[in-house]
Amino acid sequence: MTPELELALAVLLPQLNPKIPPPTAERLRALIADASVTLLIARDESAIVGTATVIVYKTPAWIKALVEDVVVDERARGRGAGEALMRACLDVARERGAQMVELQSASFREAANRLYPRLGFERRDTNFYRMTLD
Fold first, then answer.
1. Which one, of 23, 91, 6, 26, lies nearest residue 54 by Cα?
2. What is the pTM of this model?
3. What single-letter DSSP state applies at residue 23?
4. CA-CA-CA-CA dihedral for 113, 101, 76, 50, to nearest 10
5. CATH architecture designation of domain 35-118
6. Which helix H or strand E contains 70, and what residues bound it?
7. Tens of pLDDT along 71-115?
């Protein structure tokens, strides 16, 4: 964990969702130490321009990979960083033995929603539920 990563996530995650608070250094250290989690970054010549997180976990039926928090800085979009991150996510999932990869994407994220089917993802007809715990 570096100050550069901490700063980059503080800039990038609100671009994904303005309600996401910047992660603390402690949270980042715990994330990086978690064996089920792989945090990927995309860089240009001078800075981190994107990030994605892959979580691989087991259920009674599957070994699954969940891709979360895929975001590319708005100033760097359209140059292939998002696709490179997603291809790296798929590589991590395969290397870790996942049988399937799942993700969700807000409908207004048009470029992302064009990318995922190009990479082989299929849109599912499902109800997605969330409960925030205190």
1. 91
2. 0.91
3. P
4. 140
5. 3-Layer(aba) Sandwich (3.40)
6. strand 63-72
7. 999 999 999 999 999 999 999 999 999 999 999 998 888 999 999
